[in-house]
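Researcher: Here's a chain I'd like modeled. Treat it as a single chain, no partners, no ligands.
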Amino acid sequence: MNTTSNDRSIYLDYAATAPLRPEVWAAMEAAREDRFNPASSHQFGRRAARRLEDARSFLAESLDCRPDEVIFTAGGTQSNNLAVLGFARARIDQRPRVLVSAVEHKATLEAARQAEREGAYVRILPVDQNGALELTALQDELRSPGGPTLVSLMWANNEVGTVQPVAKAAELAREYGALFHTDAVQAVGKLAVSLEGVPADLLTATAHKLGGPLGIGLLVRKDGVELQPITFGASQEASLWPGTQNPVGATGLAAAWKLAVDERGESISRWLALRQRLADRLTRGLPEARIHAEGAAERLPHVLSVGIPGRDTGALLLALDLDGIAVSAGAACSSGSSAGSAVLEAMGIRPREPYATLRFSFGHATTAEEIERAADATVQAASRSFAAAE
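Model: Modeled as a single isolated chain. C-alpha cells:
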C-alpha cells in the first residue's frame, strides 16, 4: 500500500512526483554528515565534494557520458531553461533557431517563447493524433536556411505517455548540423535512456520522478556545446549553475536513479499489466471513455490518460480526492489553470462538449487492488457526474 495520509488512500500521480523511497532516504541520511559546502578547501568541504563527484560519476556512467558533462541543477524546469535559453543567448547575434514540438513541457515551451522575445526564431512543430512528432515537419524546418539551430524534443510525454521518435530526431538534427536536446524527465527508469542509443547534445533529468528528493536534477551538456548561463554567481557546475552545490541531494538523485534502472525490467512488465487492467475496467464501466494516444507506437508503461465526454474534470478530481484517490488532469505545473490541455489540442482533441481528462500514473508501490478500486471509484464518480448533468 502506498504511503499516504490514511490507510485507504491511493496515490496514482507518480508522473507528477513519486513518493520518496525509503532506500533513497537512507542513502541521504548516510550522506548528511557531508552536508557542507563542496567548494570549501578544508576537510569537510573535500568530503562533501567527494560525495558530489561520486554521484556525478555514477550518473555519467549510466548515461554513457563523461562526468564533467553532467551539470547538477535544481530540477527539470531549470535544466530545460538552461538548455534552451542558454543555447539561444550564446548565439543571439546569429538569429538562432529553436525547434520544439507542440507537446513539450511548459518549462521548454516557455523558455522557447522567451528566446523568441529576445530575438531567436522559434518554430512549434506539429504532432500526429497520438502526440508523436511529425518528422517530416522537422526535416522541412532543418532544410530551411537559417542560423544555428537547436531541436528540443521530450523523450516521452508527461500527459499522455507517448514515446517520441527521439533517435530519429537526433539523427536528423545531426545530419543538418543542428544540436539536439531531449527532456528525459519522464523516461528515466521507464525506458532505456542512454546517450549511446540517442546521440543528444543536451539531456534533462530530475530526481523526484524517480522516488528521489525534490529540488535536484541534471543537465547533460556534451563537450563542445556552448551555453550561456541563465543565473550568475561563482564557478560551480562549469559556471552554468552557480551557487552552493547539494551533495546530499545529488546522493539522493543517484540512489533513486540506480533503484529505478535496476528494477526497470521487472517494473515495466508489472506496469503494463496494471495499465491494461485499468484501461479495461474504465472502458467497460464507461464505454464512452477514450484512451488518449492508444495508437502510439510506444507509450510510457506507467501512464494512462483517459478522456470522458460529458463530464467535468474538476468535479471528477474532487470526487476521487474525497474518496482518497490521488490522480491528476495532466501536468502538475498546469494545475489550477482554466485552459484546456495544449497537448490534447495539439493531438486534434477539441471537444465541443464538456470533456474530463484524468491521468493515472503508478510506481513501485502500486498494487492491482489499488488499480481496481481506483477504476471502480472513477466509474462511479463519472456516472454520478453524468446523472447530475442530465
